[in-house]
Design a protein that fits this description.
about 45% strand; 5-stranded antiparallel β-sheet; single chain; Alpha-Beta Plaits; 2 domains; elongated; 3 helices; 14 strands; alpha+beta; SH3 type barrels; about 190 residues
């Protein structure tokens, strides 16, 4: 997967009704064990709280918004062509999720998982009381493999090649030569120039 085309998207998976919390717990354990936390970020069972009157007393009741469904946020690769924009799910993560006990599949067209639109996620999160993470879009003038000059920190003025771009932490890793060896230096996006 190319680092420049990686984006976070929300997907919905279908589960056996009543197994949503168990699927969430099992998925979190499997993702941790199989070291897929950098791909699958959050797993949510959408619920809302209601106040009901029972025997003349107010009681707080938590209800699932969509019984049989679980939401998960994943890093996917954005694929653009002349006709459309698509998103490719990591095959290891897809396999782990799809083969978790209680999961019947992703919501999507055919076997292809379809991500939720940003407006759908915002609307859903507002309903369940989760703060929406504001997405910052970067139009980076460089890519992995480009030669750049470091403009900040102790290595300011040093030249090297970009070996990694981390959108999450907003940093790039530049391999500079130091004492005859290539050394990785991590700087902010605006800490390098072409």
């Amino acid at each position: 997967m190319s680092d420049n085309n990686l984006v976070k998207k929300w997907y919905i998976i279908h589960t056996y009704s009543g197994y949503e919390k168990k699927v969430k717990t099992d998925l979190e354990k499997r993702i941790e064990t199989l070291k897929l936390k950098d791909i699958v970020h959050r797993i949510i069972v959408p619920e809302e709280e209601n106040i009901e009157l029972k025997d003349g007393k107010k009681k707080k009741v938590v209800r699932k918004l969509f019984p049989g469904y679980v939401m998960l946020e994943m890093v996917v690769e954005k694929e653009e062509n002349i006709e459309s924009i698509g998103y490719r799910v990591d095959s290891d993560a897809w396999y782990v999720i799809r083969n978790t006990a209680g999961v019947t599949g992703f919501v999507g067209v055919g076997s292809e998982p379809t991500p939720l639109e940003e407006e759908e996620v915002e609307s859903l999160f507002k309903k369940i009381g989760i703060e929406v993470e504001k997405k910052v879009k970067y139009n980076l003038p460089y890519a992995v493999g480009d030669t750049v000059t470091v403009t900040e920190g102790a290595f300011s003025g040093s030249q090297g090649k970009i070996s990694d771009i981390n959108l999450e932490s907003q940093k790039v890793k530049v391999m500079i030569e130091l004492f005859g060896r290539l050394t990785p230096v991590e700087v902010d996006f605006d800490g390098v120039e072409n």
